[in-house]
Write a structure and sequence with these properties.
mainly alpha; three-stranded mixed beta sheet; 8 helices; 3 strands; 65% helix; elongated
């Protein structure tokens, strides 16, 4: 039988061993966390899993922010509220469910489909203002579709709506053009509208043949640029 001194020594040793085990586990967890934070020291399989996890976390974060900004803009943006009201007057009911946040490639920040509504490219927005401009741009397309019964396979129809959307949404604002690397002292807004409209029309599979986008935008530009409906003037 152990005497009291031996029992005390055994207890002390056992407690010390447990403390060492806990410290080792903490250190292992810390090392593992550090590897996943920095990406250093991972095996190829671990790195692939790490990248997949990070991509999913980033996508979820971007989607959450996109939806948050969408809801705030629908509630408080004068331009978005104005477009919502006028789209309804044109015969189309729209709510936040018609604005879908999804990741996109680098060629766009938004899109409009008569079947599915408005696409907001959650991974492309530089700011809340950028998202607001994109929402208004796509809402001009929706307004045109409701009011004028646009045929999106008709390159002239598409070109006219792209001219109006680029002009009225704020997409061709002076500071945005400077960030893109474009600057002129005269007719900068018109130059931007033409360039942006041509770029968008050329992505339409019905208008992608060489020269068609340029010709159709040039043909409709004067009349469509002057048409600021539903705004009284260029926003």
């Amino acid at each position: 039988m152990l005497n009291s001194s031996a029992k005390a020594e055994e207890t002390t040793t056992h407690t010390s061993d447990n403390a060492i085990d806990r410290d080792e586990l903490k250190f292992e967890r810390w090392c593992r966390s550090l590897k996943y934070i920095t990406g250093l020291g991972l095996t190829e399989q671990e790195r692939e899993l790490y990248n997949q996890k990070r991509a999913k976390e980033l996508e979820a974060s971007q989607c959450k922010k996109c939806k948050k900004w969408r809801d705030e803009l629908i509630r408080s943006s004068p331009a978005v509220i104005f477009m919502l009201q006028n789209i309804e007057k044109a015969g189309c009911k729209i709510s936040k469910k018609h604005f879908a946040c999804h990741p996109c490639d680098t060629t766009r920040s938004g899109g409009f489909s008569p079947e599915f509504g408005i696409l907001l490219c959650q991974n492309r927005f530089l700011s809340k203002k950028h998202q607001e401009i994109t929402m208004v741009h796509e809402m001009v397309h929706l307004y045109d579709h409701c009011r004028f019964k646009i045929d999106w396979t008709n390159c002239l129809h598409h070109a006219c709506s792209e001219v109006r959307a680029a002009s009225l949404s704020g997409d061709c604002g002076w500071t945005r053009e400077i960030r893109r690397g474009f600057f002129t002292f005269t007719k900068q807004h018109q130059t931007c509208v033409k360039r942006r409209a041509i770029l968008s029309v050329s992505q339409n599979s019905h208008c992608s043949a060489p020269g068609i986008a340029e010709r159709t935008v040039a043909e409709v530009f004067e009349s469509c640029f002057r048409d600021t409906q539903p705004f009284d003037e260029i926003y």
